[in-house]
Amino acid sequence: MYYMTIAFGNANSVDHGYGNQAAQAVKEARQHIAELINASAKEIIFTSGATESINLAIQGHISQQNTPATIIVSPVEHKAVLDTCKALAKKGLAEIIWLKVNQQDQIDLEHLEKVCFGGASLLCVMAANNEVGTIYPVQKIGAIAQKYHIPFLCDASQAVGKISINFQDWGITYLAISEHKLYAPKGVGALVVKKGHYLEPLIYGGGHEQGLRSGTLNVSGIAGLWEGCRLRQLEMEADETAMPTAGCAYALLRDQLQNSLQAQIPNLLLNGDLNNCLSGNLHISIPDIPNSAIIARVRHQLAISTGAACSSGIVAPSHVLQAMNLAENIIEGALRIGIGKFTTKEEIEKASSAIASAVKAILSLK
Asked: What residues form DSSP beta bridges with 241?
């Protein structure tokens, strides 16, 4: 709020004190982000969000390659990755090699190494899945990419501020960050670009952000990202681990909700890699009960969804669950539930009761 109302300077107007103050805020933000992910502050480029960051990384990288370039892509990536790669392929600028995932949404690392052996222009694998919450072995994936000298784009929107990310040492070339995923304001993000790598910009006009992203910076949003990263650095370990001393840590609340729902809905299924999952994510399926019917009954009590926010308003099966090769009745009965820092035990109990009641109401109609 201070940088939105009081220190309302343009970070690129450094001929006066207002601009200098704004520029200092941007500098501080770069440093806090860098510390959170073990990167250099000079490697951080501010954008409007992870979708822009991903587009800049993929399009900016591929535009410099001999066409058609080869992109290795996980089929469970965010639509920002998938749609960008498909658009390039449609224009004849890229060929896509799809990776394999199993029914637990685990990436087949042997297949990954096999396709990397053949060479590629870019590898795209996210750090954690935005639907089922699976955490991928980024360090191992980065090591394979480095072994075959393939630039590696990692969409870390769901991961930064929740799990440890080591940009410097994990073989990552480009890292996309979304601000609102770590409790900062919406509409700001960042792309971390490994030193020595160049991207063709998507936006021209002024040469801001090392010439990669022109335009006046959203200083208040960037200040929010600065504060969000600072707080996640302090609180991440306690929030994300299921230790008794952690109080209402995400994982404890998630397990409470999971156990309560399983007790009331015997045929409930859990989706994703249960041993490597974001603490605040619970992805369930209730076979043969349409998720839309449940959402219709709980929408005024709970903010849960049938899929990714990027596809809101589009009635279509989840591409993530389809790539996992789950049965149609499991996909149609899937629900994505997010648990956050400010969720309470009482809210978990209400959520469990609301979902279970909706299921019983639907079953009574059959």
From this structure: none
Three-state SS at 45 = strand
| Residue 44 contacts residue 192 (beta carbons within 8 Å) | yes
**Cα 277 off chain centre by:** 13
CB crowding 102-139: b at 16 or more within 10 Å, else e? eebbbbeeeebbebbeeebbbbbbbbbbbbbbbbbbbe
Which tokens belong to 310?
A: 């990027």
3-state secondary structure at position 42: helix
Q: For residue 237, what pLDDT is reported?
A: 82
322/65 Cα distance (integer angstroms): 31
Q: For 20-37, what is each residue's pLDDT tens digit?
A: 999 999 999 999 999 999
At residue 218, φ and ψ (nearest 5 deg) are -80, 85
Helices 345-364 and 291-298: angle between axes, nearest 10 degrees: 120
Question: Is 153 within 8 Å of 173 (Cβ atoms)?
Answer: yes
Pairwise CA distance, residues 344 & 338, whole Å = 12
d(CA 112, CA 361) in angstroms, rounded, equals 45
Q: Where are the alpha helices (DSSP H) in 38-77?
A: 50-62
Q: Which residue stretches of the chain have pLDDT < 50?
A: 242-247
CA-CA distance, 88 to 209, in Å (whole number)? 25
* 18: phi then psi, degrees, rounded to nearest 5: -60, -45
188 is written with which tokens? Answer: 């700001």
Query: According to the model, what pLDDT value does residue 247 have?
Result: 45
pLDDT of residue 66: 79
Q: What is the pLDDT of residues 211-264, one digit of tens each?
A: 899 999 999 999 999 999 999 988 888 877 644 444 457 888 999 999 999 999
Give the integer Cα–Cα distance in Å for 69 and 228.
37
Beta bridge partners of residue 135, listed in sequence order: 128
Write out the catalytic residue numbers: 310
Given a contact cutoff of 8 angstroms between Cβ atoms, the answer to whether 306 and 336 are in contact is: yes
